[in-house]
Design a protein that fits this description.
There is one protein chain. With 318 residues, the protein is α/β, with parallel strands linked by helices. It has two domains: 5-83, Arc Repressor Mutant, subunit A (Orthogonal Bundle); 90-318, D-Maltodextrin-Binding Protein, domain 2 (3-Layer(aba) Sandwich). Helix content is 42%, strand content 21%. The protein contains eleven helices and twelve strands. The longest helix is centred in the first third of the chain and has 23 residues, at 61-83. It starts with a helix and ends in a 5-residue tail after the last strand.
Amino acid sequence: MRLTLRQLQIFQAIVQTGSTSAAANAVSLTQSAASAALSELENVLGTRVFDRVGKRLVLNDNGRTLSVQARWLLDGAAQVERQFSIVPGAAAAGPLRIGASTTIGNYLMPRLLADYRGHADISEVDIRIGNTGEIVQGVARFELDAGFIEGPSHDPHLAALPWIRDELVLIAGANHPLAKRRGRVSVAALRDAVWLLREPGSGTREVVENVLRPHLHSMKSGISFGDSEAIKRATAHGLGISCLSRWVVQDMLRHGELAELKTTLPALSRLFYIVRHPHKFISRNLEQFLSFSRREGIEGWAPVARATKGLVRRKTGS
């Protein structure tokens, strides 16, 4: 086999730094050695993986495909090294790279980690927060060991496990006309209201649209926000109404800044999921963390996957 892990390591260093000189510093080589390794890699593959634009190296389609596979191979090799360099029975070294969509990352993950701290060392957990699409992409590219998402995964190559059920709440500012209505708010009134929603690509927005449109058929979109915290504050200021997780709004409901709208709609909820790549090497640290997340609960949540064994492959995004 002519392809080596060292070539892939240098290739990835070039991808991350953008030049052979910077990559050479990152992997403790001379620039000429890094350039030679890249040339050898392209000769072995029989194709260019970068486009040469002046002095810049720009990743092309072949390079983007290779980068995903290279991360997988390098990650697996690093995990093997860690596994066999530790005392038998000890947890594998190296940080866990966990992704969480914004509601989970901001409101649930801190509480989960606080509970987990009593069972294992969490000093080596690296949390990345983004919208559902970004977290799914990170898991698919092996940039994240696992992802906790609040919307469906549309990547058929990832495995997903239902995690917990989340209650969705219709809210308005305390002084909003709908909040002052007696009785339940009708579907017609909800249809005529201005809605404040998350940005496209957000799991919250997709789920909210999926659960509300069958009842409302149409929604007047107001301002889109990239953060649920901004939505609830804009709602409190009377810019529109919204539908958010109870985890997000419970503080402002308690203090009277927001009002929960009582409507004629059925109770609204959604599932949170844990996603990972089926080919991702599962270290003991990762398995311990995922098992704890699936098995344990904290006040106010009940994992729906306690009795579920393993992760299930999702064939659709529904």
